[in-house]
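Repro case for the chain-ordering regression, as requested:
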Amino acid sequence: MKRILGATTTAALLAGGLVLTAPVAATAAPQTLTEASCSGDSFVSKKLESGSGWEFCWRLDTYRGLVLDKVAYQPRDDAFPTMVLDSIALGQLNVPYDTGATEFNDVTTYQVGGRRLQEITDVDCPTGQVFTAWVDANRGEIPAVCLTEEDSGIAYRSNIANDAVYAAQGTDLVIHTMSRIGWYEYQTEYRFHDDGEISVRLGATGDLSPSDYTNVINQGWPIDPENEDYSVSHYHSAFWRVDFGIDSGEGQIVEKFKTTHTGEYGTTGDTGKTPILNTEISQITNEVKTLGANREAYRVVQPSSLNADGHARSYEIIVPRDQAYNLNPETDYDIAFTNAKSDEIHASYNLIPSKANQAVTDYIADGEELVDPVAWVNVGFHHINRDEDQSPMPIHWQGFTLYPRDFAAQNPNIPEGRKWVNGNMTGVPNPNITPAPTAAPQPTTEPTTAPTDGSTPPAEGGEGSTPAPTDAPAEGGEATPGANPVTFGHAEVAPGATQTATAGGFAPNESVTAVLHSDPVNLGTFQANAEGELSVQFIVPEGTPAGEHRLVLTGQTSSAVAEGTFTVAEASPAAILGALATTGTDANRWALSGLVLLVAGAGLAGTSMFLRRQQEAKAQA
Amino acid sequence: MTETQQVPEGDSPPPARQTSRWARLVTPRALGIGSAVAAGAAAVALVFATQTAVQATSSPESPASTPIAADSTDENAPEKAEVIAPPATIPAAYDMLSGAEVEYVRYLGAQDPAFAAGKDVFGEPGLQFLSTDVADPSSYGDGQRRLISLYYDYATNELVSMIVNVTTGSVEDVTRASGSQPAPTDAETTLAWEMLLDSEYSQPIVDEFASMTDGSVLTPASQEIFLTAHSFTTDAGSFGAESCGIDRCVQVLAQIDGGPFLTTTPYVINLSTSTVLPVS
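-- result from build under test --
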């Protein structure tokens, strides 16, 4: 009994020890802008499987429904999230019927939020997290929002001969709500990809209008067996108000890409008449509506926010071509750019009294200079009804994409082995491949003159002989004379754990490669700051042998070298725990502690059983 | 007990004194207990792992919400309350709405002189409350919580907005304008439906209802009817309702239990002038 009590005490102490040590692993990170803006369930911060993550605030607006604010993206290797959008929400949903008899503006005259929001059920959110929110006076709080991490298929794939198939599956962070407006039901969805892309879309389901049938053949589609019920064709024009806030800075600008044929043709290629295209970039300086032609695109740039390559961060707006309902001033554009104003909220029939009943056309009328761009994105969908669209109507989608351009200097989820590829690498050997030394050619020609007596044999190392191998370098390798020192965050690190290194003496802002020796492992290319100092963080590759290793940092412009050594520890359970603590979550740490204890317990149990059997055998003998 | 056990000859050499102390520890029972201890600790650790993971993905239960009267014209409306206390916690600038702050903000709005000066949909004193939302938080830099309430003033045919600072408990701005028509409220929808059924155009709707419900008589109180409505502004197809937009007009959709909609779209109810208009 005492022993049992003793055992219980040990277990309790052990557990208590874990309880006390667990929070130590969590380091207090500075508050992000998103975190400072909202709280509780409204604040979403999610690291996706790739290691990249998203943050935003969400709320429900009576008219617009789901509103997201302070949307920020954190590429896997960045220390902090970077702001992308100040805000995004529906701005209007215009539904005119082709007979001209009916037209709805769902956001302002019906509401997409408030009483129209549907309760989220298991079928709406089978695997995600359901958030409860206050929606309207009659119902108070209901389950109204679904947040899910969903598989998005292949994220990238590159089969590099004799190196590796660099491939990964991706995931998206998806947030959505459902609204029922009359006979239609709409799913409002924002899909944040782990590579920084944002898909914005609206799904329409529910039922076709029960009161919009016509006998005018060219304005509807027969959906009954007698060919008499022509269900009226109609448009859904969905408008989103996208308030850009790239890197939280002022001074964002809007640029237009226009690619045109020079009129000339190249002479190579299968056809022998490959058109030569020029892409010109011009700034959109004033508020304007645009209707994109072929090979035209727009982006919002933050010139003062540079990625590690020194390129300005931007997001491109990719809209479907030729879908706009270009027959009314309220809808005759793909993208309109205006300055962000708190009383310009709806794309048409604005509900803020200081701009009562105004539309984007009114907002741009003064042609103001663009200083804080909002993009009004209009995606049209002409619905010529089908037999299949009868109750319950299969969901059909319309939307657009916000596409990061130079937000990160490389693929934000880049595998370690491809980090060295940054720019034209023609002629640069793949550092992941150690070339096997080829034997030097044997002399094939006979000596032309007979050796004379007493001549000395050629000295070792002479022409035609292979150089004698030098002594194998120590694990840490030889130091380069004149190299600057490197300071490490940890003197000893386990494989898989994070190490930091700091060095100076580089040219301002130059690219610096980091290579771990003695078996050279390229850890990536980093950028020195304006003072020529470099601070890098890298994961010690799994499989790095224990012992001393040398990190060599080489400036790509100045050729300055900094190097230093640190010790790679054995991959002990403690080291693995430590590595997890720096790279994973508390949950990981607990889970791993549990697993280690389970394995230890099983080992003890096994030994116990073995000893018992041995004793029994001895007793029988 | 262990010490008394006989070690058969020819087996391992007899333990030395030091190893015998070790052997005393490494007994099947001790190992069994050790294994149990490890299993127990593992269970504890795994429970913590699960809890940590759960905490990372879910948040504590919110207190159950109390629905509040939807319309300012309702008996127990916050607009008619003697006093409503500020919410216990003031949400952050970008947070979702809380029922408590909506109730408080509606009460505060009703204390502003502009409220009592207006008229509701029944022609009684007091603005007709429409909605409360978060006022564009990006246009304020002080982190204070501000909501925007919209009202309709049937006395002047104007939309009225009030920016209410929840943090300081004050109405900061009142703006009004004509020509903007947000979605109708429950009270406006019900009144419009009553007016339609009370109008000269009601007979086809009453007949349609009877044919679909085996002869039931349609009244405004008919429980089988689910109402939806939208504010109506004049468009090219709506001859007959030319003043809608400046006036506050509503088109009602009446769905009968089980699906079918009554044919109500040929009519618009002008709440500002209390008239029913055929549109086509």
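Ordering looks correct now. Chain B has six helices and eight strands.
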